[in-house]
Design goal:
This protein is α/β, with parallel strands linked by helices. It has 17 helices and 15 strands. The strands form five sheets. The protein has a five-stranded parallel β-sheet with strand order 5-8-11-4-12, with helices on both faces. Strands 1-2-3 form a three-stranded antiparallel β-sheet. A three-stranded mixed β-sheet has the order 13-14-15. The longest helix has 25 residues. The N and C termini lie far apart (99 Å).
């Protein structure tokens, strides 16, 4: 309730002590009053505090080269994608930490990211590594389990609940977090045309994603689940949340080849080159119209500004993934064996056998763990009970034929 100078009752500001005769306006609340001058002062304090926070946060943002260097520690290959992702993430956090400092005539828009590539090429790993390196809340959502609000399944807004939980219910932290939405291609329309009937898990979910991707204030229940009238809700602004979407988009390369092929048809055209291109090379020529034809709605494509693709992993890359990164599968198992006081060795032929078996499965880097784990689990079952075991050597026969590894034991010292 506002009171002007003409109000007969002389109200006193609870903050500065001025009366209604000394100020232009007085706002009244339950047993408290605040004048217009104190409101302006409070607004200035809040703005200054936010600017100072933003300046501090800006200093903490690693450069694109530093971000890529961290990605290099965990992700093998995909050089162009890592550079593109590093610049996009850097620009995103630079934008949100300069909201109060940017020029009034320039508005920096939010840019979400779409990663396209075969399964097991590192899409999820990149997003996880970025969140850990930047020390921001992170959550992964599977698009295939999402439904429109009101249907059986998981509401799109529940993604924000999980992000809030990963931020220990700190709303400010959550509003600067990263959300990775996997399997985005699985909610594409099966044909390129709008659906006449209700599409709960496809086009409907795409529509539901639009608002949180672009930026909105969503009211969510603190513990997830459905909203109830008597339930207290938490407001989260998604304007500064970075959304990274990923998907294999099987068959997208054929759509791109069809578009490219039309342009090169004719006498003297080298059709073979179009057909023989690897999937990764073909995906690099993606255009928004290809995603529309695949089944994404125009509004969703328009909110995924940064689109980058990943290459298939060849034998050399898979071999490096096994042994080189900080989280290399072989290093992890060697460490587990060290805790038992045993040195684990895997021959070069055995590593090649793992790679070849993984390639046959067609699941990229995920296949490496499946193949190796299938062998090592049985070994790790026996190792703790093997006294004086010093070394375990896994050979090619162990991988391909299930042969026992070569064990080396400590020799008993002769007693005098």
């Amino acid at each position: 309730m506002a009171s002007s100078k003409k109000t007969k009752e002389n109200l006193i500001c609870s903050f500065c002590g001025k009366g209604t005769e000394e100020v232009d306006c007085m706002i009244s609340g339950p047993d408290v009053f605040i004048c217009n001058e104190c409101i302006v002062g409070a607004e200035e304090i809040i703005r200054t505090d936010n600017d100072q926070k933003n300046q501090v946060l800006l200093k903490k943002i690693p450069t694109p080269s530093a971000i890529k260097a961290e990605l290099d520690n965990y992700v093998i290959g995909q050089e162009d994608t890592k550079k593109y992702l590093s610049v996009s993430v850097y620009n995103h956090y630079k934008r949100i930490t300069n909201i109060g400092l940017s020029k009034k005539d320039v508005e920096l828009e939010k840019s979400n990211i779409l990663l396209i590539g075969p399964t097991g090429t590192g899409k999820t790993l990149m997003a996880q590594t970025l969140a850990r390196f930047l020390q921001v809340p992170f959550t992964i959502a599977d698009a295939t389990v999402l439904t429109e609000a009101g249907y059986v399944g998981e509401d799109v807004e529940n993604i924000l609940v999980r992000l809030l939980q990963s931020a220990d219910y700190n709303v400010d932290q959550a509003e600067r977090g990263i959300i990775f939405i996997d399997e985005l291609d699985k909610i594409a329309r099966k044909d390129g045309n709008p659906s006449i009937t209700r599409d709960v898990s496809g086009e409907g979910v795409q529509q539901a994603l639009l608002k949180i991707l672009e930026g909105t204030i969503a009211s969510i229940p603190p513990r997830g689940g459905r909203k109830h009238p008597e339930q207290s809700l938490i407001n989260i602004n998604t304007q500064n949340i970075l959304f990274i979407c990923g998907g294999a988009f099987d068959g997208l390369d054929k759509i791109i080849k069809g578009r490219i092929g039309k342009k090169v048809m004719g006498f003297g055209a080298d059709v073979r080159k179009v057909k023989d291109k690897k999937i990764g090379e073909t995906l690099q020529k993606i255009e928004p119209q290809d995603l529309l034809k695949y089944g994404l709605i125009p509004e969703l494509v328009g909110r995924l500004h940064n689109i980058t693709t990943l290459d298939e992993l060849d034998e050399t890359a898979l071999m490096s993934i096994l042994t080189k990164p900080k989280n290399a599968i072989v290093k992890q198992y060697q460490r587990m064996f060290e805790l038992e006081g045993v040195r684990l060795k895997i021959s070069q032929d055995a590593l090649k056998a793992v790679v070849n078996s993984a390639q046959k499965r067609g699941t990229g880097a995920r296949g490496l763990r499946s193949v190796l784990e299938g062998v090592i689990v049985n070994i790790m079952y026996d190792v703790p009970d093997m006294l004086r075991l010093k070394e375990c050597l896994i050979t090619k026969d162990t991988i391909l034929n299930g042969k026992e590894p070569e064990y080396t034991f400590e020799k008993l010292k002769k007693q005098a």
